[in-house]
Amino acid sequence: MKTRTTASVSPHVRGAGLGLRRSLLEPLAHVQPSPGDGIGFYEVAPENWMRLGGKYARQFRQYTERFPFVTHGLSLSIGSPGALDEDFVLQLKNFLDAHGIRDYTEHLTFCSDDGHLYDLMPIPFTAEAVEYVADRVRRVQDILERRIALENASYYAPLATDLTEAEFIRAVVERADCDLLLDVNNIVVNSINHRYDAVQFLDALPLQRVRYIHIAGHYCEAEDLRVDTHGTDVGDAAWSLLDAAYARIGPVPTLLERDFNIPPVAELMLEINTINRLQAAHAPRIAANA
Question: Is the pTM of this model over 0.85?
Fold first, then answer.
């Protein structure tokens, strides 16, 4: 068994979280925070909310006044060859400050050059890219006045492989002195598409830097091809890897992502409750080791 690691867990959220979509605002309006046996926190993509006014802005404020929130960005494009959009980062800081949100995470990818590509592209796994990305991360952290976390991303064709994927992730977060948003579904997807062992990959990551965890479903295109969609129920392999992660770093906060084909709240709660059960199963081990 891998030696237990103390992770850099967010102090601002607990339990199981859910990605908040506009279609869920009404169905979840009367739900109260319940870390441990319900929804403990929410996550949003700030780009989808920071420029809203009117009804949606009022509804969102009601949620952030009631629940702890984390944010997961879509357009920072931390690995882009283009200049860092510092105006966007300043707008983001104002949004986070206005709602009292401390945790900001992004994908370890790029999605723009001269314009937006509307997809998350892999960064070359090279030492040069490590230094480039780390410099940009440090600048973002200076502007936001927050330590951020980067997510291990799914990808379908690497741009360069001077370093392994795990070596690249570790080098970036250590050089930038930022944290890791651990996405267990992305590990499952990549392990099948790129033919490596998911648990060995998990153990190669800087688990002491995990801020919180993502879990989601994916589409099975073929036996040897998975597509990261967040549009289906979580699969057995992702649940198993989440359990393995808890065995290594404890029952850290975990966020269920569901971006489309969103089922009724009662069905979402089945997966939220699975997260809660897995976390509870590992809680006694934490207490015994305290």
Answer: yes
Tally of residues, the chain: 290
Domain count, the chain: 1
pLDDT band for 6, please (50, 70, 90 cuts). confident
* Averaged pLDDT for residues 89-95: 97
Residue 4 lies in a domain: no
Q: Is the pLDDT of residue 99 over 70?
A: yes
pLDDT of 1: 40
How far apart (Å, rounded) are the C-alpha atoms in residues 119 and 111? 6
In a domain, 55, yes or no: yes
Which two structure tokens, joined as six digits, stand for 231? 């549009």
